[in-house]
Amino acid sequence: MDYNAAKLFLAVVQAGSLSSASEKTGVPISTLSRKMNELEQGLRVQLLDRTSQGVKPTYKGQQFFEQARMGLELLDDAKKSVQSDHKLQGKLRISIPPNFPLWWDLLTAFQRQYPDIQVFCHASERVVDLFEDGIDVALRMGDLHTDNIIAKKIMSVEPCLVASPKLIELCGFPTTLAELVSFPIATWEGINNGTFEWQFGTEKITFEPIFSTNNVEGLFHYSLNNMGVSQLLDILVAPYLDSGELVQLLPDLHAEALPIHLVYARHKHPSTIVRAYIDFCINWINNRTLK
C-alpha cells in the first residue's frame, strides 16, 4: 500500500472535499483524485462517496480511516524520534474554553520546554468535535456527556463572588446572598440565556444584571472599575484577591466545584506529543497548586 496515498486519503476525509484537501496539502486536485482511485483499486474496496457537495467516507472507508490514522501517527512518531535527536517535533492542535488566561501561561511554559512543537490553540464556547475539527486534546470544564473520549481530570475550580473595595464602601458588605439583589451585578450570559440566578449550596437568588457578557475579561473590567459584583472562578481571581484589587464576598458560601479535564478521542492512539502535553499540564498544575 502507498504510504503517501494513505496520508492523502486522511487529508481528504478530514477536509471533506478534494478542493479543500488540495488547498491544505498543496497537492493538485488531479493528483489527489488519481491517488484516491489507485488506493481504492489497490485495496479493492470503495473508500469514498463522491458527490457534487464533496466527499465522505463509506462504511469501509471510515474503518480504514480510523485504523490508518492510528498506524500513520505511530509511524510519524517513530520517524520523528529517529530524525530529531530525541527532540519532540511536530504540531499540536488543542482546544480550550474562551477567556481562560491561566492556559496562556501554561502554553508559553510548555513551548519553552518543547520549542520544536508548533501549537494551534482554538478558544471557543463551542464544544469542538475532536474528529471533525482535527483537535488532538481539548480542555473541558464541567461534567462530560460522551463516552467517545478518554478524560484525565487535572483540577477543580469553584465560582466565587467578588467586588472592588470601593464598591463595597459604597454599597456595604453583604452578609447574605439575598442582599446581593440590591447590588449592581455584572454576570456571564450566553447567546440564549434568559434567567439569571446564582446558587451556593441551598441558597439561591434570581436577579437582573446591569451588565452581562460572554467575555470574562469584560466581567473583570466591570468588577475592577467598581461597576458591579461578579461571579468568577477562584483560580482566575486569586491574583486580584492577593493584591487587594478585588475582595471576595460571602466567603463561607460555596458553589458546586467544576471539574476540568483534558480529553482526547478514545479511538485515537495518543501520539508522543499528545502524551508530553498531557503530562506537562498535570505537572504544571500540580506545581502551581503546591506553591
TrEMBL record:
Where does this protein come from, organism-wise?
A: Vibrio casei
Task: Name the keywords, alphabetized.
Answer: DNA-binding, Transcription, Transcription regulation
The family assignment reads: Belongs to the LysR transcriptional regulatory family.
Instruction: Tell me where in this chain the HTH lysR-type domain is found.
Output: 1-58
GO MF entries: DNA-binding transcription factor activity; sequence-specific DNA binding
Q: Report the InterPro entries cross-referenced here.
A: LysR-type_TF_proteobact-type, LysR_HTH_N, LysR_subst-bd, WH-like_DNA-bd_sf, WH_DNA-bd_sf
Specify the superkingdom: Bacteria
The entry's protein name is LysR family transcriptional regulator
State the CDD domains in the record: PBP2_CrgA_like
Q: Which PANTHER family match?
A: HTH-TYPE TRANSCRIPTIONAL ACTIVATOR TTDR-RELATED, HTH-TYPE TRANSCRIPTIONAL REGULATOR
One Pfam match, by short name? LysR_substrate
Query: Per the UniProt entry, what is one GO biological process?
Result: DNA-templated transcription
